Amino acid sequence: MALPSGISFSADHKVGLPAQFNVAVPFIDRHMGEDRGAKAAIRTASETVTYAELAERVNRTGNALLALGLKPGNRLLMVVKDCPAFFYLFWGAIKAGIVPVPPNTLLRAPDYAYMIEDSGCALVVYSPEFAGEIEPALKQSPAQALTLDAFLSEIAKASDVLEPRLAAPGDDCFWLYSSGSTGRPKGAVHAQRDMVVTSELYGVRVLGVTENDISYSAAKLFFAYGQGNGMTFPLWTGSTAVLDDRRPTPGTTFENIERFKPTLYYGVPTLYAAQLAALESKPRDLSSVRACVSAGEALPADMFRRWKEKTGTVILDGIGSTEALHIFIGNRLDDFRPGTSGKPVPGYEARILDENRRPVTKGESGALWLRAESAAKYYWNKPEKTAETMVEGWLNTGDTYRQDEDGYFIYEGRSDDMLKVGGIWCSPVEIENCLVGHPAVLEAAVVGHADEAELIKPKAIVVLKQAGSGNAALTDALMAHCKKTLAPYKYPRWVEYVPELPKTATGKIQRFKLRS
Ligand code: 3UK
């Protein structure tokens, strides 16, 4: 398919954009001029939204946001489940020059209170399902807030004509929050250009997404991975996205695959493991799927093999990040190696550096640095974190990698203590702090531990106030305490009781000594 007018890519995959434009035009409005008005942009179990309906609702949303008093540059915090209105809010804001910020919807009130304050957002829109966490978070805040239902009645009243607010390719466009091992989530600020780059370089040039594809991402839209899979790649190519607001399980995902017959399916390793287990007892029809994609954490080679055996389809593992926006090293249909992350996506430059920031000899491990045209510009309000992570046009990924003899990149772990659980960040420090809040616990350390599918989950090593009182009932109580206090996926799946924790001379827990 031809690139949208005014947009080009050079022979070395560098993007060319107009000096002034609005990225909602090539992703949304363009399809009216290309005869796709009647085509399905979104399908859910209860509705189909055509490209014409999408363009109209995006305009109404932009106008409704302006009518509520939002000004260009203001932030809109949208805590919204996977449904068509996610598209309306995200693109309506962008078209009106407002900056959408869609956080993880699995978080707790204190996380949202922090994001509301940190972003200084002018408006919070939230699906009513999340009221229990959002409404307490709004108590101290000057931001306006509306439930999604209330907002949708505003858009019904708004005009369906909206001039796009022009911006430069490098101007702030949307943010995504990313978490660190210590400290608060960081708002990664992405530019107008970034979704064009990921959609064309990974979506079109690696996966070969075309107008004829139907994409279904089990990974949610708030995750940069799901945002590309389930929204920007389909819109860039004028194809169809399938949305489901339920929690993805083997049951719901296979049901969607059989019903909507997607050609592309996107998951994370934890879900593929559960799907594989479910396939043992009930075969399912995946014949529509031409490729499966995995990201978020490394996909074990054995899972690749078992999936291929059971479904006939390959799973293309690729590493992406919130900062890079989407996958920057990936396997492809005509060039893959199970157990590796593949090779750099065209247009992305990856380097493995030693502790002096010099390239390692090929085959040795080191820190992975990345040069990306889709990289976030900076972290909001966090100049030190920005300076550590974004250095002279390069991104420090925080990952350790090596290359095999044929140039495939092999993941070797994080250089900090952060864990990926079900593809989502999990800070050991946050879980430790939660455990220490339980009356029986004196100290705790949390490390990653591989489950039976070789996927990492949090394990707690606990020192009790009353030595020797650890038992199964207390373990259950500690797990319940964490589930109640933290985002539910963060609870420790194992608890081990020890008399003391290994520490450095300065009293820092030596988590590496506890990993097993
Ligand atoms: C880890 C992987 C091994 C790695 C993401 C695809 O995961 C995404 O973004 P996040 O900001 O996390 C980034 C970090 O996650 N990771 C991601 N994928 C892999 N490790 N193999 C993989 N295939 O530590 C990385 O630094 O949550 C994934 C697209 C967009 C994304 N934002």
What are its keywords?
Rossmann fold; binds 5'-O-[(S)-[(2-aminobenzoyl)oxy](hydroxy)phosphoryl]adenosine; 3 domains; 15 helices; nine-stranded mixed sheet; five-stranded antiparallel sheet; 516 residues; single chain; alpha/beta
Shape: globular
Our count of helices gives: 15
Structural class: alpha/beta
Bound molecules: 5'-O-[(S)-[(2-aminobenzoyl)oxy](hydroxy)phosphoryl]adenosine
Strand order of the largest sheet: 4-3-12-11-13-14-15-16-17
How many structural domains in the coordinates? 3
Proportion in β-strands: 15-25%
What does this structure look like?
It is a single chain. With about 525 residues, the protein is an alpha/beta fold. It folds into three domains: about 20-40 and about 50-165, Rossmann fold (3-Layer(aba) Sandwich), CATH 3.40.50; about 215-415, ANL, N-terminal domain (Rossmann fold, 3-Layer(aba) Sandwich); about 420-515, GMP Synthetase, Chain A, domain 3 (2-Layer Sandwich), CATH 3.30.300.30. Helices cover about 30% and strands about 25% of the residues. The chain is built from 15 helices and 28 strands. A nine-stranded mixed β-sheet has the order 4-3-12-11-13-14-15-16-17, with helices on both faces. Strands 18, 19, 21, 22 and 23 form a five-stranded antiparallel β-sheet that branches. A four-stranded parallel β-sheet has the order 6-5-7-8, with helices on both faces. Helix 2 crosses helix 6 (about 150-155), helix 4 packs across helix 5 and helix 7 packs across helix 8 (about 225-235). The model has no long low-confidence stretch (mean pLDDT about 95). Bound molecules: 5'-O-[(S)-[(2-aminobenzoyl)oxy](hydroxy)phosphoryl]adenosine. The site of 5'-O-[(S)-[(2-aminobenzoyl)oxy](hydroxy)phosphoryl]adenosine has 23 residues, from helix 8, strand 15, strand 22 and strand 23. 5'-O-[(S)-[(2-aminobenzoyl)oxy](hydroxy)phosphoryl]adenosine binds near residues 321, 322, 326 and 425.
